[in-house]
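Example for tutorial group B:
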């Protein structure tokens, strides 16, 4: 197992369990305890965990796993969701994409649509996510509009008043939201209030709003509210979402697509 793969596994386990012990995780990952101790020390230097005697704990109560370590989680579900979301977009539309692993997959699904390969521009993509802009900038059929702002290293998203200035001057056809949590009562939410503020503004500038969220995000709450459930038109999720949860969103007036 490579170091990057090992670190990804360690951080995912840490988010899931809250605490890891060296000997236990070394056995689980089939590497030496010395390797795990070295990994923990290096991750602690990057302030991605807190070292303890014999193990490690998450870095504070608001711990957020950086985007580059999230990509392998529920990958097949996110790719299915992304293809379904991409199918909701019509040629010539202006599409807003927030940051996140699922919206990144949406960008990739749009990039491979054959009917969007020739027109110029086939789509206008508005995003505050640097990684999405970077992936799509090489696609000449897309017009890429990037908001200003200050980059958050956890999510590669631009936030702050500079981003507000761009978004307040435009309108878009559809906003695609990646969320940390989505609940009928509490709405769509993120971990960071600055990200939530930009995502909220993107929703306000859109004719329709699509939440792209795997089933693990549903019926959950997070720190910073993006918008109410009433501001969302469509939820695209995976088939692991239970019937009761789907029914509650439909009763709230959303169209729910499960894939």
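The residue assignment follows.
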């Amino acid at each position: 197992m490579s170091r990057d793969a090992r670190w990804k596994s360690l951080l995912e386990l840490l988010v899931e369990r809250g605490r890891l012990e060296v000997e236990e995780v070394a056995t689980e990952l089939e590497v030496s305890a010395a390797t795990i101790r070295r990994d923990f020390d290096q991750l602690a230097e990057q302030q991605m965990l807190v070292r303890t005697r014999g193990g490690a704990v998450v870095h504070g109560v608001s711990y957020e796993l950086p985007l580059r370590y999230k990509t392998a989680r529920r990958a097949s579900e996110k790719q299915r969701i992304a293809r379904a979301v991409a199918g909701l977009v019509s040629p010539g539309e202006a599409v807003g994409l927030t940051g996140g692993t699922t919206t990144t997959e949406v960008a990739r699904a749009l990039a491979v649509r054959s009917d969007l390969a020739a027109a110029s521009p086939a789509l206008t993509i508005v995003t505050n996510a640097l990684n999405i802009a970077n992936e799509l900038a090489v696609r000449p059929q897309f017009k890429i509009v990037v908001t200003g702002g200050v980059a958050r290293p956890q999510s590669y998203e631009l936030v702050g008043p500079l981003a507000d200035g761009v978004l307040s001057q435009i309108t878009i056809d559809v906003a695609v939201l990646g969320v940390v949590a989505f609940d009928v009562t509490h709405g769509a939410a993120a971990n960071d209030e600055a990200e939530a503020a930009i995502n909220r503004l993107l929703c306000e500038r859109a004719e329709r709003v699509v939440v792209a969220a795997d089933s693990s995000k549903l019926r959950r709450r997070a720190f910073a509210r993006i918008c109410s459930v009433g501001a969302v038109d469509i939820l695209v999720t995976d088939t692991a979402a239970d019937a009761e949860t789907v029914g509650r969103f439909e009763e709230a007036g959303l169209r729910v697509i499960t894939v």
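The first strand starts at residue 19 and ends at 21. Compare this with the pattern of hydrophobic and polar residues in the output above.
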